[in-house]
Amino acid sequence: MFGHDWTSKLVVGLSLATLATSNPVAAPQATTTITPSGPPCTHSATNRACWRNGFNITTDYETSLGTPPGITRVYNLVITNVSSFSPDGVSKPAMLINVGLPAVTCSMLTSFEGTFPGPLITADWGDFLQINVHNNLPQNGTSIHWHGMRQLGTNDQDGVNGVTECPIPPNHVKSYTFRATQYGTSWYHSHFSAQYGNGVLGPMQINGPASANYDIDLGPYVISDWYRTTADEAASIAEIVTNGAPPASSNVLFNGTNINPSGSGGQYNRVTLTPGRKHRLRLINTSVENHFSVSLVGHNFTVISTDMVAIEPLVASSLFMAVGQRYDVIIESNQNVDSYWFNATLVGGLCGVSVNTAPAAIFSYQGAPAAGVPSDPGVPLTTTPCIDNTGFVPIVPRQAPQSEFAASQDVLDIQLETTTVNSTAVFRWEINGESNDVKWDKPTLEYVRDGDTSYPPEANVIILDEPDVWTFWVVQNNAIIPHPIHLHGHDFLLLGTSDTDANPTEPVIFNEASDIGGLNFNNPTRRDVAMLPPFGWLVIAWKTDNPGAWLVHCHIAWHVSQDLSVQFLEMRDQIPKAMDLGQLEPQCSDWEAYYETSYWKIADSGL
Ligand SMILES: *[C@@H]1O[C@H](CO)[C@@H](O)[C@H](O)[C@H]1NC(C)=O
Ligand SMILES: *[C@@H]1O[C@H](CO)[C@@H](O)[C@H](O)[C@H]1NC(C)=O
Ligand SMILES: *[C@@H]1O[C@H](CO)[C@@H](O)[C@H](O)[C@H]1NC(C)=O
Ligand SMILES: *[C@@H]1O[C@H](CO)[C@@H](O)[C@H](O)[C@H]1NC(C)=O
Ligand SMILES: *[C@@H]1O[C@H](CO)[C@@H](O)[C@H](O)[C@H]1NC(C)=O
Ligand SMILES: *[C@@H]1O[C@H](CO)[C@@H](O)[C@H](O)[C@H]1NC(C)=O
Ligand SMILES: *[C@@H]1O[C@H](CO)[C@@H](O)[C@H](O)[C@H]1NC(C)=O
Ligand SMILES: *[C@@H]1O[C@H](CO)[C@@H](O)[C@H](O)[C@H]1NC(C)=O
Ligand SMILES: [Cu+2]
């Protein structure tokens, strides 16, 4: 529909002006004329609940008429290998997006204007995005996943190599096209093994209504762990059993910068607050492994969104954030004109450790001394276990039918295994006794295109053919290591989790008879990443309304690399009707041709 152009070679001399810019053009698809149904109103600082054309915070964005008309926005992302990048004063090799050079060279860049996180992709609710991803890495494939985007009817744009496409080979382009049917804050990242840990990620902001008023939108705030090794090295260190725990991160970056905790160099990230105003801050945890609790000394957060689900405003003094999770919060600058620490407190232990023991950024009121470092250290957070905040109430409600739970619940049983590769003992994860190792050159959608149902066991495919039914999953953790569980293609209802205060020393198994009473079927927290407690369980539910192959995985890069995922193959017969699976080619044959002689080979699950 946008004239897919993914076979074309990298556009030589691609003008800088087109990089990371949005070029709104009239949308040919600007679909059905929707008569405004709500009262006329104007989106403003004092009426954020209103959007436009009759759409507002109460609109059910998952229904067919629940998306406002939109325009097409075009972005170009060029991924490049760089030898030296120093976001905190310490140099390391990285893979960055749109480093500010014409995309004409395929050799390794040695000078660049660093871009980490990658450029912000913004759109309005209802807009169409066309994002041309140019793989300028000489020796890696890539595929870019648009985290949290529902991809209704566009599973082939989900960017999961080995599931929804073959990887984009070096010197090739893929145009991803999909619609922003939801609003809020999210991010995009590579799904090619641990590649995103090298820097291939960036924020996404979909503008829409909000459940509370604010004056100033500060935009996304990307918080990420950072390693001196490359992600590929760190992943292979993390898998070796005798190494014990995965490597500690070297630092934690706020919007791409921080001081070097173990030496000199680098700079605190600084954010300016206007006195007496309400600021919206869009927190995104793009870590590879570290989980943190975030807080701003002397201030509360009013949470208005969990992932991309608007919620009844809720005040919190700190928020635990698992990898992949987002919270949109409002900060009211009602304290003395001064500078304040914005802390990401590491929970530690199995929830991730960093060489930087007190990562922080500085939020300063306008008028506070410019270079000042805050004097008030704040109150140390009491050690929390590695668990989610819950109890959020979505504005657009959902009820799951409790009567159907008993009959249709099923289990994803997660086990930690060790196996031997070249006489080295390594960690592997299994779900229901199978690992998920994808074949980059034979994505699951290719099986669907060919009507081939002989999915290999190591693709860990679970069939959900029946349309429009609720599906319930107990995710059971048989190890003491917590996992942020992420589902593609849906926001799930988080019906409940095991009692995490119990501090278990052995697995607490979900027991329907005794645990069902504690589940919330009536509009519980809804999001796309939830923390599976150590030795515990969580129960999630969603409705089969989106045909495609949807990955469920742990968002700790090391764990998904070590096979911790399954694929839900939803409404198989609808998939070829909803999208053109012919578009798998020629990318797949281009990938095969590249891979035959490629320098590096797959060394993990591929995800
Ligand atoms: C939102 O629109 C609906 C009609 O679609 C209307 O009934 C409701 O009052 C509006 N709510 C707000 C907060 O604007
Ligand atoms: C990046 O450059 C380094 C150094 O030349 C090379 O070893 C590595 O394979 C390159 N990576 C990719 C993905 O091209
Ligand atoms: C990707 O490139 C990195 C080096 O930059 C290398 O370590 C890794 O093995 C490569 N992976 C594949 C599958 O190409
Ligand atoms: C973080 O960086 C992005 C992109 O550069 C910017 O749009 C955003 O405003 C920054 N966030 C804050 C809180 O300063
Ligand atoms: C991000 O998630 C990781 C892993 O879940 C966690 O260790 C880290 O503390 C989180 N970061 C923040 C800022 O919450
Ligand atoms: C933060 O919220 C708590 C609980 O609602 C309240 O007691 C406290 O005064 C608030 N602090 C600030 C700085 O608003
Ligand atoms: C916040 O970070 C600063 C700087 O690292 C540190 O001194 C302070 O103790 C931290 N406060 C909290 C509450 O974590
Ligand atoms: C490890 O074993 C695989 C086959 O399982 C082989 O392809 C690879 O070359 C071996 N690597 C080393 C470093 O021996
Ligand atoms: Cu995990």
UniProtKB/TrEMBL annotation:
InterPro entries: Cu-oxidase-like_N, Cu-oxidase_2nd, Cu-oxidase_C, Cu-oxidase_fam, Cupredoxin. Pathway: Secondary metabolite biosynthesis. GO terms for biological process: lignin catabolic process. It catalyses: 4 hydroquinone + O2 = 4 benzosemiquinone + 2 H2O. Gene3D superfamilies: Cupredoxins - blue copper proteins (2.60.40.420). This is laccase. GO terms for molecular function: copper ion binding; hydroquinone:oxygen oxidoreductase activity.
